[in-house]
């Protein structure tokens, strides 16, 4: 009798059972944006990572889908462990073994996102917004909600469960363009970037002003060089910081 096939299958089974949780975990952790890329583009227009300004507040929205069937607003939470919560409480709980953490109710958070989006789409007062909260399959959801709080593996099915036509092709395109025009994500990132550069410069200047090397924290001393006096680090040659006086 030929034993090669049964032995091969046995090893396959062994590998699968050993790494099962890892394999399914990896599938679950697949980025939501790549899951959404499987949607039919003629029916669903996806925008990932949106920053909307409304007054002083900024809303950072993970994913918006403008579809024939209304607008989906998706908030993703990459949390593991037991997730406990309900529709209206302020906070939810994450439990991993004996450790408990609380976090702001993502349903409320996403309502804030929808509110911000509504302000940018005032021309469409009758729009239907569908809130979806997505957790990875490494989480164990113990939630009691009327809003959809689901595993990422159920995301496509959940989106496709809506089939009543709500928007025309022209409306879809117009809304898509409006959101894209309101999306501040690049300006937002840039302003954060500029802020961090400014902070670094400020730190450097205040270090020098108090005679400390901004690179290593050691003292600065006045040295004589080819082109006159300059401030140098006492740790030279270990630290090569220099600053003209
Ligand atoms: Zn130094």
List the helices and strands and how they pair.
Elements: H1 4-28, H2 32-36, E1 44-54, E2 57-67, E3 70-76, E4 81-86, E5 91-96, E6 99-104, H3 106-120, E7 129-135, E8 139-144, E9 148-151, H4 155-160, H5 169-182, H6 185-209, E10 220-225, E11 228-233, E12 242-244
Parallel strand pairs: 3-7, 4-8, 7-9
Antiparallel strand pairs: 1-2, 2-3, 4-5, 5-6, 10-11, 11-12
Bound molecules: zinc ion (ZN).
Report on the structure:
The structure is a single chain. The chain has 245 residues and is α/β, with parallel strands linked by helices. Helix content is 37%, strand content 32%. The chain is built from six helices and twelve strands. The strands form three sheets. Strands 1-2-3-7-9 form a five-stranded mixed sheet. It has a four-stranded mixed sheet with strand order 6-5-4-8. A hairpin with a 4-residue loop joins strand 4 and strand 5. The longest helix has 25 residues. The radius of gyration is 27 Å and the shape is extended. The termini are far apart. The relative contact order is 0.12. Bound molecules: zinc ion.
Helix fraction by DSSP (H/I, runs of at least 4): 25-40%
Instruction: Count every beta strand, where a strand is a DSSP E run of 2 or more residues.
Output: 12
Bound molecules: zinc ion
Average residue-wise pLDDT: 89
Strand content bin: 25-35%
> Element order, helices and strands?
HHEEEEEEHEEEHHHEEE
Low-confidence segments: none
Protein traits:
alpha/beta; 6 helices; binds zinc ion; 245 residues; four-stranded mixed sheet
